[in-house]
């Protein structure tokens, strides 16, 4: 609109300016010419009138003539001079005061009655140009006012014309903005049959097509959203079903496995026949392999159900290294490998159990795929306040195409370069997946670098803390001898009760067993004194909880004023709500299947802690 208005105003402005520039000088020239003619006429008339008085030198008459001429309009001054230049009469007219601009005309006075005589004198007439200049200025002012008025009128006309011309375009712009805001249907009025009308019709057609496309896309998006929600629900249901299946399978399958572990260990206690001992060793190897597989499934199910709770603490990293070394040094030696846990004085802040599980899995995985050389575990201080833990191996390595997927569940890199890659320690491909899940819970990430044929290194970072003083434990170490200990075992699986009773009796324990609360209270009645420790499963028959049975035994023994007994829970449960109950009760817990060594150590720790509390 501004451009259209400017285009309209420029011709008017140029034309008016040219007219003023051309007419003003011409008018000035006209006014000067008129003044020149007037002055010449007055001078000629004055010369004619003063010829006789000048010949007779009638000064008074000359003065009167000069005064009468000076009274004429625009006459500023009149002088009558003699032939020798003497001023005989000098009169100022009404236009003579404060007059800076005048036009002077001089005429000689000739005696018309005596032709051929010398000039009698001269008459000088000054005509004032003030009125002419005033008229010129007034005319210029009027021209400028007319110019301003004409420009104002032209501007109004130009602006209205621009609005009228640009109105269709502005309506198109508004319609485009409406489309940009997502309005449903936009249409502009077709104003004429010119190019503007063609543009309007084209816009309406495009807007209608866009509206149809938008409706089609919305229908597709709505359909895709519904389908995506359905698939997400199906995936969530599948994930929940998978977690429930793993939890149920882990619990139900561990029951007979636990019984098998107990029976195989009990058989080896009193056996002396080498042939039978060899068979029992093979059975224990199979049980250990099953235990390893179930441990992977249990860890995965506990991670997916959120059963693992983080317990952050500050501890020396070397203690975890020593524990891992005890677990795998003998396995490494059996395969002719070296396991080096580089000693360190660094302290970290983390969950000790999860960190131990991460290192156990990484070292186990490294030993499984290493045929010669060994495994090195080292910790290094870093400038960013963290500790970098590296697990190096000289194994077969991992090809580049497998490195992205080795942390996926059930993904295994098949290799035949390692003889002990198969057998009783063969995994399900869950070890590294569990490591990555545990690392995420500890707010870190496991990184992998590997070259096929040269080995691999797994690295992760932990927050470093200043080293602290560790108080030295007073007293002698607890003896692993459990003979003479009174143990009450509660479990709803008869096979487990039979196996653990046989194992504990082979250790010299006095054992009573029960399958539920009623039998447990009956066993308590048969003993004159409370048991040293009660071992109970968490989930018993008919939905009964081992915690309720322990509470009932507490109430039974408190009536007689007996001191509290030690307690230990053994479960294959992975549900987070059930495990939170155990944590709230602060009772030691073992997860099935439990090896005889773990069971013996847990018995001594729980019994010793109970005696210290009592004292």
Automatic annotation (TrEMBL):
UniProt cross-references to SMART domains, sorted A to Z: HAMP, HATPase_c, HisKA, REC
The record's catalysed reaction(s) read: ATP + protein L-histidine = ADP + protein N-phospho-L-histidine
Instruction: Identify which top EC class this enzyme belongs to.
Output: transferase
Q: Which residues form the signal peptide?
A: none
Q: Where is the Response regulatory domain?
A: 486-607
> 4-aspartylphosphate-modified residues are where?
537
InterPro entries under this entry? CheY-like_superfamily (IPR011006), HAMP_dom (IPR003660), HATPase_C_sf (IPR036890), HATPase_dom (IPR003594), His_kinase_dom (IPR005467), HisK_dim/P_dom (IPR003661), HisK_dim/P_sf (IPR036097), Sig_transdc_His_kin-like_C (IPR004358)
The molecule here is called: histidine kinase
Source species: Dyella kyungheensis
